[in-house]
Amino acid sequence: MSAAARRRGSEAFFIQRCQMKIMGMILLSPITSSLSSTNHYNSISSFTSSSSSRSRYKHKNDDASSSFRNIDDALASFNHMLHRKPLPCIIQFNKLLSVIVRMRQYYDAVISLSKQLELAGLSPNTCTLNILINCFCLMQHVDLGFSVLAKVIKLGLQPTIITFTTLINGLCKAGEFAQALELFDDMVARGCQPDVYTYTTIINGLCKNGETAAAAGLIKKMGEAGCQPDVVTYSTLIDSLCKDRLVNEALDIFSYMKAKGISPTVVSYTSLIQGLCSFSRWKEASAMLNEMTSLNIMPDIVTFSLLIDIFCKEGNVLEAQGVLKTMTEMGVEPNVITYNSLMHGYSLQMEVVEARKLFDVMITRGCKPDVFSYSILINGYCMVKRIDEAKQLFNEMIHQGLTPNTVSYTTLIHAFCQLGKLREARELFKNMHTNGYLPDLCTYSVLLEGFCKQGYLGKAFRLFRAMQGTYLKPNLVMYTILIDSMCKSGNLNHARKLFSELFVQGLQPDVQIYTTIINGLCKEGLLDEALEAFRKMEEDGCPPNEFSYNVIIRGFLEHKDESRAVQLIGEMRDKVASKKLLLCNSPTRCLPSKSCYVLEAPSDIWDLGCIVFVMLIGKPVWDFNPETTTEELLRKIAHELMKIPPDDLIADFSDAADSTDNEFCAHLVLKNGVSHKKRSFIPLLDQMTLKS
């Protein structure tokens, strides 16, 4: 079989495999939320900027560069031309300078060579000066690019559309979007009509600045001006819409583009596949992949890397490994981003051995690991508590000439703190400063939490105050860690002060920090203050959740204030969607210590009565779930409490079917043989029924 045939076979196999795997996500597993959104250590790109990073326009006459193997050959050719008599025309030199520019790293050499041309008496033309403007913009010196524009005008030359487009592109890359738009308008005012390249450049800049709506408006304006958008223009907008999570709008633009007879490219399809997958729209993503390949538009490195990243985030590492194998069979060489994605996937599955194997394969294949490669593997070792290997890898990274970043340091500090090795964590924290790396909020947070967990509240508080003396400002996470630790250690006054400090710092407490301080107040028996904080929570636009309700309900029950506990149960039933009651350490101490039973609040008064009854008695109803029927619940109560024959209890339930709520609740309490508590139970259950 020929190499071409094998390649076609691999392509067909890949297409079928990916379609099956994407579709399989619908059938085999629920879609989980991305862990990386909240994890500081998962520092790996999800290829969200890959489409826009592609080269948009190919230079013509690229074959001119094939005559030069390196910069030395190009310089030798320049010197040869410079000493010819007569001198070649400026056009020939411009071609040579353009070739050197496309070598992508010798912009300063081009500037120097252009000066030699002027010294030799060869005047630059507009094309020469456009090349210089491009060099300055690529070197991020757009201001010097404008000085060349001044020279164009001074020499009596006419700026061209390329002159303005190059400067607009330089301004956009420098983040000067307002100036780019101003130059665009000035160009039009001078009578220089923008072409599709100019429009696409400014549209790309707007999209990168998050002004997708303005970019869409400019495309419409572009058509009205008689300049038709091309596939790059539309693909730029599609990519931006997908990043803004406006996938339906992106699909509309995609359909409109095809209706106008413009054929999509791999960039267009890859952006849409990524956007659809971000919303777990696997069926549509599979259809898009099928459409793409049916048009003989084969996936490139960006598409492959995207698919690997998606599979890894969904926990389908084997499928991601299959994509890696297929892409190599198709002749597409993985890059460091591809390998990093798969290593990250293995690490998330705690398969650090496989991640290390892939790391070694990457090196063997000549792909040099970057700082993210090492950080991912270090994090993987830390996750499985193999701290020695993590330290060894950290040192290896430095030995290889790579500089550890804040993520690398923080990952190791976090691992040391989790293992209780605070001395090593502090030493690494100091080394971080010594080597010129500033800790971020996450670094301080993990060290702060490490101190608190080991009971070193003084050190934690000093670290907190020291951080406030830096350029960083503490966030809610840090305040929550400290307030929780202060409450648990009985330092309620310190917790109160920290809570008040939040408002001074301009921070709005969230549900977690409110619940933490309410819990601390309840434990100290300060129920009125706890209830006041609970009410203030809602007034501040932070509605309590089921955990907040359970904390304060448990606080009232533990301090024998059953009346207000029942009121809050009724309130919780009306306001909170999940309605989970957590039975933790009941007041009668019949439950084991540190036990916690979760019961879904039922929809009718009978089941709610049973739950309150169980809470007050202090014995759990085992195996309760939202599907449990009233009859099943009554049988469980009869069995767990007084060993009453279930049939008797159910018969009494049937007899009381026509009774009022209060009568039934009283009947239920009396039948369960707890007459010594009936005087307190019946009023409680009466109050509960009034809340229903």
UniProtKB/TrEMBL annotation:
The keyword Repeat applies. Keywords: Repeat. The keyword Translocase does not apply. PROSITE patterns: PPR (PS51375). PPR repeats lie at residues 125-159, 160-194, 195-229, 230-264, 265-299, 300-334, 335-369, 370-404, 405-439, 440-474, 475-509, 510-544, 545-575. PANTHER family: MEMBRANE-ASSOCIATED SALT-INDUCIBLE PROTEIN-LIKE, OS03G0201400 PROTEIN. Belongs to the PPR family. P subfamily. This is Protein kinase domain-containing protein. It comes from Populus tomentosa (Chinese white poplar).
